[in-house]
Known about the structure:
The chain is of the alpha+beta class and about 150 residues long. It has one domain. Helix content is about 30%, strand content about 30%. It has an eight-stranded antiparallel sheet, covered by helices on one side. The longest helix has 14 residues.
Amino acid sequence: MKTIKTxxxxxxxxxxxxxxxIAKEVKNIKIKLQAEVNVDLAQFGxxxxxxxxxxxxGLYRTEDSRYLIAIxxxxxxxHDFIGVVVSAENPFWHRGDIKFNFVIDENNNLNGxxxxxxxDSFPVNFKIAANxxxxxxxxxxxxxxxxxxxxxxx
Length: 154
């Protein structure tokens, strides 16, 4: 049965690859296959301070402060950025789980998918501002605040 589903999916994608909707679904499928991303906070903090990060990269917390998420530029062709859970006050999410994936559009905004605890995806759009992502859903956390919270990055 699994083989039939795989072939059906492959044939469906083969005939519909020119559709923008299908392109988003392909991105969804590819990122969902990736089980976990290990984020070394010390290395990520050093990269944010001394490297050449994209303005959208950084650590963000959700509006309810239940999740700390690292937004990371990614080299995969299927997505430009991923949002990886660093910490969560929810038993369904674990460090390294993918919470978001994005592509940059022609207006330099991030368009992508948000995943809930059931694995369902929902479209999200974030504007990239001078200091990071501008959104009512997430806010950038400065490194000084992380040190205060006991998350030493450097």
